[in-house]
Design goal:
Blueprint: H1 3-12, H2 16-22, H3 28-44, H4 48-61, H5 65-88, H6 92-105, H7 110-122, H8 126-139, H9 144-156, H10 160-173, H11 179-191, H12 195-208, H13 213-226, H14 229-242, H15 247-259, H16 263-276, H17 281-293, H18 297-310, H19 317-329, H20 333-346, H21 351-363, H22 367-380, H23 385-397, H24 401-428
Helix pairs in contact: 1-2, 3-4, 3-5, 4-5, 5-6, 5-7, 6-7, 7-8, 7-9, 8-9, 9-10, 9-11, 10-11, 11-12, 11-13, 12-13, 13-14, 13-15, 14-15, 15-16, 16-17, 17-18, 18-19, 19-20, 20-21, 21-22, 21-23, 22-23, 23-24
């Protein structure tokens, strides 16, 4: 067995001190150069722990500063490679420890900063992720992937303008165009309400990858938000052609039909979405609305109940409210009130629920209770025209005609203001 073989055997056993004793007073620089080759091959074999052992030993025995520095850089590579393995296993804290060590050993190790950013992103620590990407970009201003990932982090934080700028940099710097930055920039534009720009980016993403189901889905969603429902449906059709079992495509097409008030086709698509994904809460919710539009209130109540069963408790307030509305339409007033109570318990500032609970008491001819609820709705939302109008009705029933007149005047004022604001918004498009 050669001297190198003996040393490697000891290192594999974890006996670093014995290995060090073996090479005392020998040409350690020459041996260190041989160990670096062995350590590098271990990284290729994904044996990161042993590679780190080799490089730590390598650094310890190297006497020449240049060789020692080389050892540190290789050791940094080994820590970074192990950090990537931990990241892929979902062991984010251990991954960060290894990237920190890699950066400590080589403060200009661009990929270590970039990968550390990815781990922080995986932990939803987006500010720290951005800091790491900033350093990677500082060291390499043409690092395409770092701009792309920093754009994703800004997008997650809701800073869509910065995200758009970073995706643009990734597009401009990339030697070959690729679809992901166009797709993600399209998403950021869409979230900013810039639907035309979003659609242009989705067009480019689809040009680069014509089989990207999500690009068709998101372009369809942008068309829906623009009110171009037929174009949206065409995109959802393409997504379904590419992936016939993709529940979101049926759901979104159903929503487009819903917006066109074609409730039968909407329900048909919501059915398909639920068939593909039996726990698709939003599909049950939208189908419930479509049933309510067709006056199938029992079916709507059943669907809203399913949403309540599927959703986490903190988010249940609106669904109790929707089911309460269906009970109200059926004149099942006590059940409606029970659901509005639950909605208000979960969301104490739920003005709509107070208003509709007031309306239910009004229908039960409990006018004082109705007025109490309208008061609360107006306290929470002073521009709530329906609540003023409804309270005016209740005051009228009690013979308080002056108060009723005041409320009708306030309701008319708020309705006029709402119409004025709508006209302003339409003129600014």
């Amino acid at each position: 067995m050669s001297e190198l073989d003996e040393i490697e055997d000891l290192l594999k056993k974890g006996e670093k001190e014995k290995a060090f004793e073996l090479i005392k007073d020998k040409d350690t620089n020459s041996l260190a150069k041989k160990l670096i080759e062995s350590g590098s091959s271990l990284i290729e074999k994904v044996d990161y722990d042993l590679a780190i052992t080799y490089f730590e030993f390598f650094e310890k025995i190297a006497l020449d500063n240049e060789i020692k520095e080389n050892a540190r850089k290789h050791l940094a590579v080994a820590y970074s490679a192990r950090g990537l393995a931990y990241y892929e296993k979902g062991e984010f804290d251990r991954a960060i420890e290894d990237y920190n060590k890699a950066i400590e050993l080589n403060p200009e190790y661009v990929d270590a900063y970039y990968n550390r950013g990815n781990v922080y992103g995986g932990k939803d620590e987006f500010d720290r992720a951005i800091e790491a990407y900033n350093k990677a970009i500082e060291l390499n201003p043409e690092y395409v992937d770092a701009y792309f990932k920093r754009g994703n982090a800004y997008d997650e934080k809701g800073d869509f303008n910065k995200a758009i700028k970073d995706f643009a940099m990734a597009i401009d710097l990339s030697p070959e165009p690729y679809p992901e930055p166009y797709f993600n920039r399209g998403n950021a534009y869409r979230k900013e309400g810039e639907f035309g720009s979003a659609i242009k980016d989705y067009n480019k993403a689809i040009e680069l990858n014509p089989r990207d189901v999500n690009a068709y889905i998101n372009r369809g969603f942008a068309y829906t938000q623009k009110g171009e429902f037929d174009r949206a449906i065409k995109d959802y059709n393409k997504a379904i052609e590419l992936n016939p079992d993709f529940a979101p495509a049926y759901f979104n097409r159903g929503a487009a039909y819903h917006m066109k008030r074609d409730f039968d086709k909407a329900i048909e698509d919501y059915n398909k979405a639920i068939d593909s994904k039996s726990d698709f809460a939003l599909a049950y919710n939208n189908r419930g609305f479509a049933y309510a539009e067709k006056w199938y209130f029992d079916r709507a109540i059943k669907d809203f109940g399913k949403v309540i069963d599927l959703s986490p408790e903190p988010y249940l307030g609106p669904y109790y409210y929707y089911r309460g509305n269906a009970y109200l339409q059926k004149w099942e007033f006590d059940r409606a009130i029970e659901d509005y109570n639950k909605a208000i318990d979960l969301k104490s500032d739920f003005a709509l629920a107070y208003n509709n609970r007031g309306l239910t008491y009004y229908m039960k001819r409990e006018f004082n209770r109705a007025i109490e609820n309208y008061n609360k709705a107006i306290e929470l939302y002073p521009e709530y025209a329906d609540a003023y109008y409804n309270r005016g009705n209740a005051y009228g029933e009690k013979g308080y005609f002056a108060r009723a007149t005041d409320d009708y005047d306030n309701a008319e004022k708020e309705y006029r203001e709402a119409i004025k604001n709508l006209s302003l918004n339409l003129n600014s498009v």
